[in-house]
Amino acid sequence: MRTLKDIPVGGSARVLRVQGAGALQRRIMDMGITKGCLVKVRKTAPLGDPIEVKVRGYQLSLRKADAALVEVQ
Prior knowledge:
73 residues, SH3 type barrels, five-stranded antiparallel β-sheet
C-alpha cells in the first residue's frame, strides 16, 4: 500500500481512498482530498512534517500522520 507521505517532492498521484474514521477522515475530505482527485506534493518541511500539497488548485499543508491515511496509486 502506497500512501501520500511516500510520494517524493514534485511527484503526483491519484487518490484511491482515505482511511481512518470519523472526524479524522472528515477533516481530510473537507480539504478536498477525495477518491479520484490528483494530488501533487509541492514541498516537505526539513523534518518531514508538514507536507505541502496542491489539490484542485489549492495549496494545503498536511501532517505526516494525516498523509499516511491517504492511499494513492
